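quick one
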Amino acid sequence: MRLNSPQINLITKACMKASRSLIRDFGELENLQVSSKGPGDFVSSADKRTERILIEELQKAHPDYGIITEETGIINKSNLNNKWIIDPIDGTMNFLNGIPQFAISIGYEEDGEIKCGVIFNPILNEMFCAEKGNGAYLNNSRIRASNKKKLKDSIIVTGGPKGDSKIREKIFSEYIKVSNNVSNVRKFGSAALDIAYVACGRFDGYWQREINYWDIAAGIIILKEAGGFVNFFDENENLPLKKNILATNSNIHEELMSLINKKDIE
Ligand code: 2AM
Ligand code: CA
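structure w/ calcium ion:
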């Protein structure tokens, strides 16, 4: 791999280390599915343990850096210039159900911009990573977003709505609208991997409302470095960590954005 910033080295190593216990935990799930206690608590402890290992590794190198994580929240809030953005298990429900579609996701933000990121599926041993200006990789191979030109030929991935969403109906009607204008829509259950898959051309685009920043931070730089486009729409200034994201190859971005923005006919 030709990525060599100290930050990318650090996050890839932290990922590899944390993934060992995660792989073990995933293997144990089969037994837990049939136990009377069920796997719920176990998953949250796998989540917490993975996050603890990641934080320990990253803090060893930079105790002063800010950290935003799914489980712990914000650490070193006053460091606005250097931040790690961590999701220990993205795709928790897949993990819980023994579906090997989940990932560790870590992004590094400097002066408000994501500079590098890693998304690692430890079960498939697929590591997506990128560093600003140096391209995006899947393991040792350079990746590129697809070259699909038309929305009607594209495979688009999405997620949601979450159980507690106040815009369920809007999300469902958007799902129908997009489905009617593309080749197919998929729901794979891990936002981080959804974007990584756009970056390597498996999907042509991804959109989702009400996603958390830690789900997509690493994906932003990976897709941009793979030649794709990312933008946030309908932003809410009061909720800076909640995003509505559109992430696609460079050709269909405008077409998908205007479709999403198009008012439904009454
Ligand atoms: P998770 O697995 O880390 O919870 C599935 O569509 C995606 O949505 C996953 O990346 C999942 O992350 C994320 N997700 C889960 N709960 C969410 C919530 N309440 N709000 C926003 N995103 C959520
Ligand atoms: Ca997540």
